[in-house]
Amino acid sequence: MKPFSGIGAACALAMLATPLWADEIVVGDLHPITGPANFYGLPESRAIQLAVEEINAAGGLSVGGESHTFRIQTEDTQANPTVGVSALKKLVSSDVRFVIGPLSSGVGPALFPIIDRSDAITQIIDGTIAEGVTNGRNIFRNQATVSQYDVSVVALFKAKGYGSVTMMTDRFHAGFVGTQPALAASLKELGAEIAGEEGYKLGDTDFSATLTRVASRNPDVLLIRGYPAEGALITKQARQLGFEGQVVWEMVSPPSTVLKNISAAEMEGVYNCIPATTEDYIALGNEKAIALEEAYRARFNEPAGELSVLSYDAVHILKAAIEKAGSLENAAVNAALADLTVEEVPQLISDYVPGEGGQLFDDKGQVTLRSAVSVWQGEGWHPATDVIR
Amino acid sequence: MPRTDLLRVTVAAVALFLVAATLALRLDDYLLYVVTLGAIFATLAVSFDVLLGYTGYLSLAHGALFGVGAYACGILTAHHGWPFWAALPAAGLVAGAAGAVIALLAFRTRGLYFAVLTLGIGLIGHQLFLVLAGLTGGVGGFVGIPSPGRPDWVPLDQNGWNALLALALLLATFLAAQLFVRSRLGAACLAVREDLTLAQALGIRVGQARLAAFVFSAIFTGFAGALFAAISNFVAPESFTVLGAGFQLVALVVVGGMGTLWGPILGAALLTALPEALRVASGYSLMAYGVLLLVFVIFAPRGLASLATAGLARLRTGAGFRAAPAGERRP
Amino acid sequence: MIDLFVQQLVNGLALGSTYALVALGLTLIFGVLLIPNFAHGEFYMLGAFLTYAMVLAGMNFWLAMALAVGAVILLGCLVDRLAFKPVEQAPPLSMMISALAASIILQQSAMLIWGGEARTIPAPVTGVLRTPFFIVTWMQLIVMASLLLAAAGVWLVLNRLRLGLAIRAVAQNRDAALLMGISMFQVRLATFAIGAALGAIAGALLGATFPIYPTMGVNPVLKAFVVLVLGGIGSLPGAVFGGLFLGVVEVMVAGYISSELSDIGAFAILVAVLLLRPQGFFGQAQVER
C-alpha cells in the first residue's frame, strides 16, 4: 500500500506546485559534467548558471507582456553518445523544450536525428565545432565550425607565403578530421606543398616517430590541430628532434593550460589560428567578458573556462529570441532565432560577424565568429598584427 | 525431464516478456529508452554468457563484434537500401563470420593469453572502424541509419516499437541460448570449462564445442549491434571500444551471475539503470557508480543470480519446514 | 646527418622503456597473486599527481617522488585490503571487476581533487643529448636508466632476500608455499607494496615528460597487459623485453608506414606473436590459469 500513497503524495505535490512554476521557462543544460571532458563541460554549464541568475535577478524575461524566469535543468552527457541521448530523452520527457549544448563532437551528431525530427525542441549548440549538426530550423549554433578555424589558417598562409606544411591532426576529433581534405586543398591552392598528413590521438604521449620524419623533411610549417596538452607535447618534441620551421596551432588553448605543459620560452613565436576565447576577450579588455570572469571567480573560486563566453552568449540569445517571438511556442522561437540580428542581443560577449541583413545566424543556423590569428609572445597569445589587422 | 524443464523456462520467459513489454509501454520516452538500452545490453550479456559462463573463455573482442553488427546494419540499410528486417539477420551472419575467424585464431591460447589476444583483436577492430572511413564514416560516425520499419497495424509510436523489438530480441536470444546450452554442444562446453584436458581425454570434441559457443555469441552480439544502430540512427566508433563495450560486457555478466543466462539480464538491467538513477548525484555520479560496483562485487561475488537463488532457497526451506511433517509420513 | 633508422630505434627504445616500466609492477602482482590489477594504472596516475602537487609546493623533484612512492605504497596496500581481499574466494573474474571499480574510484578522487585539466610536472632535468647518430633527451635517458635499475632492484629482492624467496614460492605454488609455513600476509603485503612503488615511480618520471590527468593510467595499463603477455606471464625479463619490443614496433610502424596505423600495427604484431608462440617470449610452457 505504502508506495502508492507515496506516489499519490508526490502527484498532489506536483499539482500544487505547478501553478508556481507556470512562469518558469526551463532551459536544458546538456554538457559533460563528469568524465574526462568535464574540464571543458563544467565551465560551460556554470556560465549558463551565471547568465540565468543574472537574467532572473534583473527581472527575468518579458514574453507577450507577461514576466517569466529561467530555470536550469542540467543533464550530464559524459561526452558519450549513448549517455548524451538518454540525457536528451530525459530532458524531453520532463517537458524541457529549449536545450543548450552539447560540447563534444561525438554527442552532437548522435542528438541531431532526434532533435531534427522533433518540433518541440529548440537547440543552441555552444560547444561542438563538428560540421553538419545544425539545420537552421530548430538547431542553431553560436560556436564556430572547424571550417571557420581553417579560414584563419588560410589567412596566415596567404600572408606569409609558406612553401610547405605537414599537418598533424587529432584523429579522434571528428571536426578536425572532417575538414582536413578541404583545408589541404585550400593550402595547396595557395602554393603550399603538403609535405605530410599525420594523425595522432588524444592521450598519445610519444610523437617521436612522426616528428623524426617531419624533422628530416623540414617543411616550413608544422600545423597541429587538436587539444593543447598534445599540442604542447608535439611542439616540445618537434624542437627536441631538430625541427626548425614555424609551428602553427589550430586549437582552443588558453595560456593557463598551455603553460601547465610547456615553458613560455618554448612557445615563443608559435601562431594560433582560432577565433578569440574567454581569456582573449579579457586580455582585449572586453568589459562584459571581465564582468563574467569576476562573477565566475566570485562564485566558483577559479577562472572561467575558454568556452564560458559562448555558453553565456547562448543563454542571452535564447532570451532575446523568446522575447522577440513573444511566445513560448517552439515554432515561434525558432523563427525568431532565424531572424535575430546581432544588434538585438547587446549582451553578447563574443565577436559575431553579422550576415547581410544583420542576422546572427545564417540559413543553416550557424554564426560566423570573427577569425583571428594570434602569436605567442612572453606569457600568452597576442593578436598577430602582421597577419590580420 | 530436460524437455519439461525447457518448456517451463520458455513459458516463464514468455510470460516475463509480456509483463515487461506491457509495463514498459506505459513509461515516458526517457524511461522507455532506458528500457530499450537495457534490453540491448541484456541481449549482449546473455550471448556473452554463453561463451564466458559455459566455456570459461574471456573474450574482449565482443565490443568490436557489437560494432561489426552495427556497421553492417548501417551500411546495408543506409547505403544499399536493404530493409531492416533483411539487414538484421545479415548483420548477425557477418558478426558470426568475423567471430569464427577470431575464434580460430584465438583458441590457440587459453587463460589470460586468450583474454589479451582478444583484447588486441578488439583494439584492432575499434581502430579499423576509425581508419576505414569510407565504409564506417570514420571518427565522425555513421549518419542516417533508418529506424526499424514499423508495420501500419502496430498501435505504437517509433519509440514504443523500438522498445518492443529490443525486448523481443532479448527473449529470442535467451531462448536460443537455453536451447544451445542444453544441446550436446552445450554439455561439451561445460566439460571444456571444468577440465579441458579431461574433456579431451574423454574424446569430447573440444574444438568444435568452443568454436560453436564463440560463433553463437558472436551472431547474437551482431543482432544486438544491428538493432542498436537502427534505434540510434547514428553510430560512432566510441560506442565499440574495448574499455567501454568490451569490459562493460564482462561487468554485466559477472555482476549478474556467470553461467546462469538469466543472471546477466539482471546485471544488464542493474548496470543500465544505475547510471541513470545516479544522474541526481551530478558531479559525483561516476564516483558513486564505482563505489556501488565495488560493493556489489564484494557482497555478491557470484553475482545477483546467486543472491536471488539463495533468497529463493531460504524462502523455500521456510515453506518446506512447515510442510515437512506431511512429507515424512509418506513411505 | 642524423641517421633516420638509428633515430627511430632510439625513439622506440625510449617509448618501450616507458611501457616496460609500467608493466613491471603489473607483472609482479599478477605473477605472484594472480590479481589482474587494473588499478595499477591509477597507482601510476597517483604517483604522478602526488609528485606534481609536492613539486608545485616547492619541493625538490626527487624528494617529492620518494614521498609520492611512499604514499602510493600505503594506498596500494589499502586497495588490496578493500578491493581484492574481500573477493579472494570468489571466481577470478570478480577480482577483475573489483579492480575496475577501484580504478574508477581512484580516478574520480583525482578528478575531484585536481580536476581534469592536463598538466606536466616541471622536469628535474631538461635538455637533449645530441650525438652524431641520434638525439635523445636527458629525461628519456633517465627513464631508460630507471627501468634497468627497477628491474635489477626487483630481481635482487626476489633472488637475494628471504622475503623474495617466499614471494617466488607463492608464485610457483601457493598451496605448497602455505604448507611450508610461509606467511601469505607478508608476501601479499610485500608484493603489493613493490608493485605499487613501481607504478608510482613510473608515474612520477613519465609525468615529467608527458601530460598528467586523472584517466592517464587507462591506456598504459592496457598496453602493460599486452606487454605482460608478449613477454610471458610473470617473467621480469619478459616484461622488460616485451615493453621494448612493443615500443620499437609502434615507432617503426608509425615512422615507416603510417602514424594512423601505429596502433593497428602494434596489436597485429601482438596477435602474430601469440599465434606463433602462444606463451609469449619468455613464458613457460602454458599452464591454465
Description:
The complex is a heterotrimer of chains A (389), B (331) and C (289). Chain A has 389 residues and is of the alpha/beta class. Chain A has two domains: 6-144 and 282-358, Rossmann fold (3-Layer(aba) Sandwich), CATH 3.40.50.2300; 147-274, 3-Layer(aba) Sandwich (Rossmann fold), CATH 3.40.50. Helices cover 45% and strands 17% of the residues of chain A. Chain A has helices spanning 2-21, 38-57, 81-93, 107-116, 146-160, 174-189, 208-217, 228-240, 255-259, 264-267, 278-283, 287-300, 308-325, 330-339; strands at residues 24-31, 61-63, 66-76, 98-100, 122-125, 139-141, 164-170, 193-200, 221-225, 246-250, 271-272, 374-377, 380-383. Chain A starts with a helix and ends in a 6-residue tail after the last strand. Chain B has 331 residues and is mainly alpha-helical. Chain B has one domain. Chain B has 14 helices and two strands. Chain B has a two-stranded antiparallel ribbon with strand order 1-2. The longest helix of chain B has 27 residues, at 29-55. The two termini of chain B are 24 Å apart. Mean pLDDT of chain B is 91; it is low at 320-331. Chain C has 289 residues and is mainly alpha-helical. In chain C, helix 1 packs antiparallel against helix 10 (236-256), helix 2 (40-56) packs across helix 8 and helix 3 (61-84) packs across helix 8. The longest helix of chain C has 30 residues, at 4-33. The radius of gyration of chain C is 19 Å and the shape is globular. The model of chain C has no long low-confidence stretch (mean pLDDT 90). Chains in contact: A-B, A-C, B-C. Chains B and C meet through helix 5, helix 11 and helix 13 of B and helix 4, helix 9 and helix 11 of C.
Structural features:
heterotrimer, A: 389 residues, alpha/beta, Rossmann fold, 2 domains, 7-stranded mixed sheet, 17% strand, elongated, C: 289 residues, mainly alpha, 2 strands
Which stretches of chain A of 5+ consecutive residues score pLDDT under 50?
Answer: 1-21
Task: Please state the second-level CATH architecture of the largest domain in chain A.
Answer: 3-Layer(aba) Sandwich
H/E element order of chain B: HHHHHHEHHHHEHHHH
Report, as a whole number of angstroms, the end-to-end distance of chain A. Answer: 74 Å
Instruction: Report the β-strand fraction of chain A as a percent range.
Output: 15-25%
Which stretches of chain B are poorly predicted, pLDDT < 50 over at least 5 residues? Answer: 320-331
Provide the gyration radius of chain B in Å.
21 Å
Alpha-beta classification of chain A: alpha/beta
What topology, given as strand order, has the largest sheet of chain B? Answer: 1-2
Largest sheet of chain B, if any?
2 strands, antiparallel
Which CATH class of the largest domain in chain A is shown? Alpha Beta
Rounded Rg of chain A = 22 Å
Number of helices of chain B: 14
Q: Separation of termini of chain B?
A: 24 Å
Q: Largest contact between protein chains? A: B-C, 41 and 49 residues
